[in-house]
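User: Quick sanity check before I run a bigger batch. Here is a single chain. Can you write out its predicted 3D structure?
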Amino acid sequence: MFEIFRTKLTRLLVKKLGKRKPKPWTIKDTFFAIVTVVITFLMIFMLAKWTKNYEKKQLENSFMTIGVIEKLQPRASKTRGTEDRIFFFFVKNDTVFHRTHALDTGKISELSLNIGNCFEVKVAKQDAEIFECYFNKRVDTIIDKNQYTNHVYNTVFHKMKFE
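Assistant: Done. Predicted structure follows.
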């Protein structure tokens, strides 16, 4: 009984779905598809442009401080290819901010960076996430991060690497 019902149902579905042909695209469908793609790319472009302008405006109102290299990862893997990753910290208002900076592959050896090197960092006053590193402007000094009690890390995994 169940088998007969199942075969009849499958024949009916094959009969109905087999006759249905895909509807051809009209000019209206094509127009809306093109407009949707253009609007999507325009929104992505505007968001990227706004972010870049925001960072530029924040760096105009900034201060210079000293950054110290904590860890170097030459040829660290990313989604496609590799990059040189630098883990460093700087002090702002008695708080140590631990940050990462990515460079092109081979820049660590080209700039001859070592752990413990100090360099100038330009940090935005309102947002410590926005900074510019000047690895070619070396500073001869020693900063001990252990004398500060407040430490701010990028993520929990970043914190686990250094504690």
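Residues 27-60 form the longest helix (34 residues).

User: Great, the batch can go ahead then.
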